[in-house]
Protein 1
Amino acid sequence: MSHISPPIERCDCEVIHQDVVNQVRSTLPSEESLYDLAELYKVFGDSTRIKILWSLDAAEMCVCDIAVLLNMTQSSISHQLRILKQAHLVKNRKEGKIVFYSLDDEHVRQILDQGMIHLTE
Amino acid sequence: MSHISPPIERCDCEVIHQDVVNQVRSTLPSEESLYDLAELYKVFGDSTRIKILWSLDAAEMCVCDIAVLLNMTQSSISHQLRILKQAHLVKNRKEGKIVFYSLDDEHVRQILDQGMIHLTE
DNA sequence: TGAACATATGAACAGTTGTTCATATGTTCA
DNA sequence: TGAACATATGAACAACTGTTCATATGTTCA
């Protein structure tokens, strides 16, 4: 039933297993979902943000606390917290002029743990 | 027992909760571990690599198959596969001149799933 | 109200990264 | 052996990203 497949112009090589390609294609999530997933991991893919997340896993903290803890400028931390918040990884509450940040939900912890498990193998 | 903390020169703001900072600092993994964790997520943080991983979750494939499936050049896919392999996310086996790639272990699936769960909330 | 302070933000710059192009490597088969 | 093909790789370029610097916003308190 399977014939030798004709070459496809977009790619600089022949299709080796067209049936496999078709099968896999049918199981792939939407382009948009995969893009969003990559964007999510991109947020985790920075040392500073990882440190912030791991810190907030231990305790709620204000921007200044985090800056001191990580020995970085307040501005830098603030920029990163904005990115983390946009990705729904952290949330904040205001108390006077102080803004306290914390992890948004339990999933964030699980994602961090899962990654760490992969490393320690 | 808690006194007002003196300002620390490295940061452009006062320490608000020195006790919290100290406590969190004691629970943080090593600088190196957190760096490695960020590096791991950085690998997941690219659309092309996410597509490759998700594809390999469905079936073992050769470089050419993936290139056709994702409508990208063989060179680009090959470059990305090297990065994925260095991160121990994929493995390969050779059969003549064809190289088949597959997910390295079960953790990769779990990390992908965990991320997707976070998105669909 | 105005000084002091915690936080946010825009612009700019340097460092990083993904793709492309050209080409190399390594395998098969006639 | 040499042509054909699957894959790998180095260099270069454009696009993206994190930090810094300057400054704005918003709150407290004397």
Note: The helical segments of chain B are 18-27, 31-44, 47-58, 63-70, 74-86, 106-119.
Protein 2
Amino acid sequence: MLKLAILGFLYDRPLHGYELRRHLVALTGHIRPISDGTLYPAIKRLEADGLLTRETEPGTVAAPRHTLHLTPAGRAALFDWLRAPEDLDISDENRWFTVLAFLRHLDAPADQAAVLRRRLAFLSEPASFFYEGTRPLRAEDITDPFRSGVLLVARATSQAEITWLHDTLALLETT
Amino acid sequence: MLKLAILGFLYDRPLHGYELRRHLVALTGHIRPISDGTLYPAIKRLEADGLLTRETEPGTVAAPRHTLHLTPAGRAALFDWLRAPEDLDISDENRWFTVLAFLRHLDAPADQAAVLRRRLAFLSEPASFFYEGTRPLRAEDITDPFRSGVLLVARATSQAEITWLHDTLALLETT
DNA sequence: CCGATATACCTCGGGGTCGAGGTATTGTCG
DNA sequence: CGACAATACCTCGACCCCGAGGTATATCGG
């Protein structure tokens, strides 16, 4: 997740940790803040896996900076992930948004469309949120205003996204 | 998160682990599946903290069941959490939905309204998802269809939820 | 009566995340 | 000139989650 967001940002241009952090904060930070204790070990792991290299430059503003460059293996890992996201990347909105943020890096519109279709399939599945004993509750049966809020918002979200998915899939097919 | 969902479900009625699991799967399982290796240790932790007790009953259908009962301390912990959710519970949609699923357990409408207002404040904050170098990008500046999809869906979601929040807050004030 | 399935629970290792804390440099304001 | 903020990076322990695997009982079809 974090791992792939890092690769995605570095694909555009080499960054040093602090800049990378700003990008990550913009992408998901308002939802779920990202701490140094998460970011720097993640960078180390990626370096250890050979997906990126660090080049130390004398600090232009402050302490010496480690500019991070994606390796060919790093680019390959990014493409692999984008072509075949895990189920969690499809179902969890936060992760899904991260996939979308970098999906343009895939060059084949057919590959992009395939990913969008997986999300569409997921959103089209009926989901029941609540149970009364063993019986799943329908939206109409729920009297609690907060729980019906959950259903209302969830449905509005899927509707908006399904519409967008159809539009974008149509657009990809004309390409 | 999981912890509080467990307390929330047990508040309604005592359940054994397997039933609890079904409830949890219905609530968030289609987004993010919950594994045994997560659930049972969580139950153990709650028991160790004195928030629930386990009563072993001879299995009615299969293996002996451990029926889980909320203790007074468990009920108190649930109320504390609902009255003052963490920032992450407010900002992360998955967690927020869990808060909403159990918010009816608070008996004071003023307390419920205060929680809804925190979510409203969060959704009203302007958020920029993407940067070009150091400059935050506006929705109009984004040409990538996938990234503009992120913005479009995010905006549709907040709009729907803001409307619902206003309606529900009005409803709570008449009570 | 055998195997499959559903019920029901548990452990363990690997791995990721977090917050708290630490180090060091440069620029800015009073 | 001294304090402070911003830049820039790093470590550590605590904690939580996950998947893989294991145990055991009841029921039902063939």
Note: The interface with chain B takes residues 22-23, 26-27, 30-32, 88, 91-94, 97, 100-101, 103-104, 112, 125, 127-131, 134, 136, 144-147, 149-150, 152-154, 156-157, 160-161, 164, 168, 171 of chain A (CB under 8 Å).
